[in-house]
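During the practical work, I worked with a single protein chain and the tokens that describe its fold, as given directly below.
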Amino acid sequence: MDFSNTYLFDQQYGLAVKAIDPDNRIIYTSLPFLAIKEKKILEMKAEEMRILYVAMTRAKERLILVGSVKNWEKTRDEWCEIGHLSEQSMLPEYLRARAKNYLDWIGPAVARHECFASFHNGKYNVISHPSKWMISAIPNETFLNTFSQKDDSILDDTSQQPVDENILYELKKRFTAKYPFEHSTKKKSKTSVTEIKRIENLQREEEQDEWIPESHESNQQKNTTVIKRPMFLQQKSLSSTEMGTA
């Protein structure tokens, strides 16, 4: 949602606008605007929390969560301190409201689990829970070194191999090929029934407006008068039986 607009609308609380000073040409954030803005932010976070719940409850056997932080030691200490501010099973509402990403919800909750005790050396109390977690903190250098070694080995292997001319020709042919139905890409992929009906009506109107000159043969057919045959030609001829009995 864009909060940079000068107004916000809520179905329950109505409209909230920013205060405008026309003399000094300054826009102030009004209290109603702040209230509705905060309400909208909480609603968006509630929806994100619902999505996270659905994602974490669909796994049947194992769930793997991957995240990244800038400073692991600092983030770890914050999780431990935040997670143990409340001894209840659920984190306080104000902590859930100020979260900026999914790790801000998952981290403090998992930091109170007994599987996280190895990261704080028993400094904080743990909460017993039947769930099982396996947490690993891997530095970025591990991935960077692994990828660089793999890239070097791949380049060394490919540089030693000869190039097949047939494969090279096929690659050039495929990369320089043109799509044979390029004109179809400029058409709409979906067309409503109303749009199809409108096009048909336009075509009918164009056909009615067109003047088609009549051919000479059609004029002759129109001017041709059908004359009846004489009465004696219209009389019924004798049948074979009548001719035999005459």
In short: The chain has eleven helices and four strands. The chain has a mean pLDDT of 78. The beta strands are 7-10, 14-17, 19-21, 26-28. The CA atoms of residues 52 and 58 lie 10 Å apart.
